[in-house]
Each structure stands twice: as structure tokens, then as C-alpha cells.
Amino acid sequence: MRSDGDRAPLLLRLAAAGGLVYLLAPLLIIFVYAFTTEEKSFVWPPPGLTLKWFAVAWSRPDISAALLLSLQVATVATALALVLGTLTAAAVSRTRFFGRETISLLVILPIALPGIITGIALRSAFSTFSIPFSFWTIVLGHATFCIVVVYNNAVARFRRTSASLVEASMDLGADGFQTFRHVILPNIGTALLAGGMLAFALSFDEVIVTTFTAGQQQTLPLWMLEELIRPRQRPVTNVVAMFVVAATFLPILAAFYLTRGGDEIAGGGK
Amino acid sequence: MSAIDTAPPRSLGGRLGDLFWRRPGLLVALMLMPPALWLGIVYIGSLLTLLLQSFYSLDEFSGLVVPEFTLATYAELLRPSNFDIILRTVVMAALVTIASAIIAFPIAYVAARYARGKWKALFYLGIMLPLWSSYLVKVYAWKLILAKEGILTWLFGTLHLSWALDAILAIPAIGGNSLSVSYIGTFLVFVYIWLPYMILPTQAALERVPVNLIDASSDLGGTPAMTFRNVILPLAFPGIVAGSIFTFSLTLGDYIIPQIVGTSRLFIGQAVYTQQGTAGNIPLAAAFTVVPIVIMGIYLTVAKRLGAFDAL
């Protein structure tokens, strides 16, 4: 029997290994470039290695300001998405009502359509109603496409949570808020945590919608984009890029070890 | 005394709970109100504002938007210079999708059927790290790799294959001065960035292929090639179509990759960006955004027929 123990054909293994190299090598190269002594070009191999760009990047006020703005936007957008996404998921999974399909479509649309459409639609709405760009215009865009990831996680969990638990709680005399606090929340808690983390990551990295809703403000991805189009400080950009990759590495590793037993592909919901 | 009289007086929350229990529709309506208002007003409202603009036109002399209904802006899309942009984007999206499917399949297949222990962890990292790493950092990494003085040129030189690289770059239309300013470069980056979106649904579909079907096929005398063609591929196909929705749609709408790596000729996303920004022609920009919406509408209808939504 060709069971799990046997090995893949050589050609298949080579193709898969080649694919893995293609997927991982570019990220590893980022790490090498962060230490290069070369300032003006992307020359390979690096002529020398140095640590000085870490100090330079650390003391740059524009980078820390961009990082702070990105963190603030992601936090507020995630909070909004958590509330709106959970409400939608609860309503959709609880009952069958007229327009249920429309609601699901409405939630998925902001991420199904290319980001540039969401971006330019928001920009043209802002200019039509003369809303000035602010922290809140960025949050508005981010929360809109973050709702879907919270919704997806929550709706799957609501389907698996038995409705009789809620009925039992009510029968035993708990009011609606007690039921929510002691029965529903513990059941959907981890799904909300997962959804919230995905939403945060999505918002933190978003650049396409943000270019249309930020005006003069700079989030970290916008700072990065500026450096990509008009490189001024290549070594500093290398260091920032390395940190961003390292920052994603740890949660991914944690997610792998936490979900190892299950057959779901963790993080596959992006 | 009746049972009702002995019951403790209900709190406000309790009475609300009772009301919602008797009238579940009320609770659902209350729960749906905030998200429906948000998406309905902020998102759909914005989309409609945009759509409306595409039926306006730009006065060529004053440069102002004329708010009168016209289809002239859509006709402008068919002008050769604009139609080329649409064609270029659709061809690129199709090629990227095909290449992603081909590269993704072996990875997904080995990850789904053979990888165990350490290898499983490596495959997991190999798919998840590129998926979750910052989009711009990935594009940046490719700018480093494809640069004229970068690692690919060095690699070809070390292997004494510089002539091959020069030959590739000399190909008219898709070649260029260096990889980072050629269509080949744009293509490589697109495939890299969207590849995980193809691998995941393909892998999920392959994981659902029962091993005993494959065993049965070989027991009945099917060669590996026949088993692949008649058993594995048909079962994995909905997953591949599901992945292609992402690779196709994401390539159609992207405007950052071709701006950073590639020629100066525009893709749809860039056309939208320039029209609304420097050119100030919001109607044309809006008409351009309708193109990917229509294409994706057709694509999704076909994908639904092929069963892709069950594989998501």
C-alpha cells in the first residue's frame, strides 16, 4: 500500500525543493543586506559587514513616528473590526433571514475587489463630501477590509457552538449579558483572538488603500514605499526590512506550534 | 400563590433578554445595524460615488469634471493606448496565474502527502513566511535580487552563464536593460508574491484526496501519469481554480509591483493611480476601475461553475 511512510518521486521532490528555495531565499537575502557596508547600490556579495546601520535606523525620528502611527491605526481598526465582525457573524449564524446572502457578500467584497478600488472609492467619497484626511480616514479604510477576517473566524466558531448552550443558560436564569459574558464569549474567545491577530497584521502591512486615505501622514508601509520609489537611505531601509521580516517570523512559528495537532492550516485565512 | 409571583423581579437586562428571546428578529436587526450601516454607508456609498463618476466626463479645455451623464469616458477606454493597458494587465494576470499553478502544485502535493516532522515544519514556514511577510519588504527583496549589480547577475556570472542572462535580456518586448526594468522581472515578482495564495487552496484540496483512491487506481493498473491525470488532477482542480481567483484578481489590481520592478509602461492599477492623481481625470480613473470589477465578475461566475467555492 502506498501509505504515508513512502517517499515522493525524485522529480517531484526536486520541484518542491526548488519551490521552497524560491519562496524562502528572498527573505533570507534581506537579512544579509541589513549588514552590508555598501551605501549606494545593491551590490552582491556585500563588500563588508557592519552593525552601524542598526544604530542609525534606531535614532531616526521619521521611522519611529511611522511605526507609532501604524501601531495606533492597526489597534483602533482591529478593535472596530472585532465589534462589527462579531456582530455580523452572530446575526448571520443565528438565524436565516431575508438578505443573509447579501450581508455575507457585503462583508467579503472589500477584500475580494482589488485594494485600489476600495482605495480610490474612499478617496473619491472623501473629496465629494470634503472630508479632510486624518488618522480616522486611515482607520476607516482599514476597518472596512479587516471586518472580513474577524467575520470569517467568528462565523465558523458560531456554527460549531451549540445553540442549546445559550438556551440552557437562559433557562437557568441568566440574562442576556450574563449569557454573553459566561457562555458565548468563552466559546468564541480563541476565534476572536485569531481573527483579531489576522486583522492587526493585515492593517499593519496595508499600503494600497492607505496611499489613498492617508494624505500627508506616513505609516510604516508608506515610509517603505517612499524609499522603494525614491531610495535615499538604502542601508536604513535594509535594516527596517529585516526587522519587519523578523517580526512576522515569531508569530508564524508560535502559530505553528500552537496548532500543530489540528488539521487546519493556521494562518491560511489571509 | 402562583409560581409567577414568587419569581424575583427581573432586572432591566433580564427583561431585555426576555424580549429578545420572544422576538429574535429584533435582536438580529439590532446586531446587524452597526456593521450594515458601516459597510453600507462607508463602503457601498464610496463605491457608488466612484461608479457615478465614471459616467461623467472631463472637459478637455478646462480640465474640470462635467457632471452630466455620458458614456464618452467608457469609449475612451477603447482608445488604443488605454486598451493596450487593459490587454497587458490581463495577459500578465493570466500568465502569472498559470505559472503559479505549475510552481505551486509540486509544493502543495509534497506538503499534503509526504511531508512529516521536520519537513512539515519547513514546508509550513516556506508557505506561511512569504504569505505573512510585509508585501513591500518582499517587493524590496526582489529589487535587491534583480538589480543589475545584484545577486542574480552575480550567480549567472559565477556559473559562467552570463551569456544566458544576456540572451534572455536581449529578447525583444519582454527583455530590457536589466531584469529589474523588464517584464520578466515584473512577472517573477508577481508570481513570488501571489504564490502562497495558490499553494494553500491547492494543498487543502489535495489533502482531501483519499489515499485509497490513488491505491485503487494503481491496483487497477494505472501508471503514475494516468493516476495523476485521471484521479488526482480532477480532484485538485477546484482548489487550483480557487487559488487562481486570488492570483488573477490580485495581479489585475496591483499597481505597486509594476511601478517598482518593470518597464515604464502602465498596468490598470497604475493607470487608475495616474489618472486620479497627476492627471486629475477622476472619470477615466473610475472607468478604469470598472474593468477589473467586470473581469472578476465573469471570472467568479465561471469559477463558481467549476466548484471553486467549495474548495475555499
TrEMBL record, chain A:
Keywords: Cell inner membrane, Cell membrane, Membrane, Transmembrane, Transmembrane helix, Transport. Its main location: membrane. GO terms for cellular component: plasma membrane. It holds the Pfam family BPD_transp_1. It is found in: Cell inner membrane; Cell membrane. Residues 67-255 form the ABC transmembrane type-1 domain. It comes from the Bacteria. It is a multi-pass membrane protein. InterPro entries: MetI-like (IPR000515), MetI-like_sf (IPR035906). One of its GO terms (biological process) is transmembrane transport. PROSITE patterns: ABC_TM1. The chain crosses the membrane at residues 12-35, 63-91, 103-121, 133-151, 239-258. Belongs to the binding-protein-dependent transport system permease family. This is Putative spermidine/putrescine transport system permease protein. It comes from Kaistia soli DSM 19436.
UniProtKB/TrEMBL annotation, chain B:
The keyword Transmembrane helix applies. Pfam families: BPD_transp_1. GO terms for biological process: transmembrane transport. InterPro entries: MetI-like, MetI-like_sf. Residues 86-303 form the ABC transmembrane type-1 domain. Keywords: Cell membrane, Membrane, Transmembrane, Transmembrane helix, Transport. One of its GO terms (cellular component) is plasma membrane. It is a multi-pass membrane protein. It comes from the Bacteria. The chain crosses the membrane at residues 25-52, 85-110, 122-145, 151-174, 181-200, 235-257, 278-302. The keyword Transmembrane applies. It is found in: Cell membrane. Belongs to the binding-protein-dependent transport system permease family. CysTW subfamily. This is Putative spermidine/putrescine transport system permease protein. It comes from Kaistia soli DSM 19436.
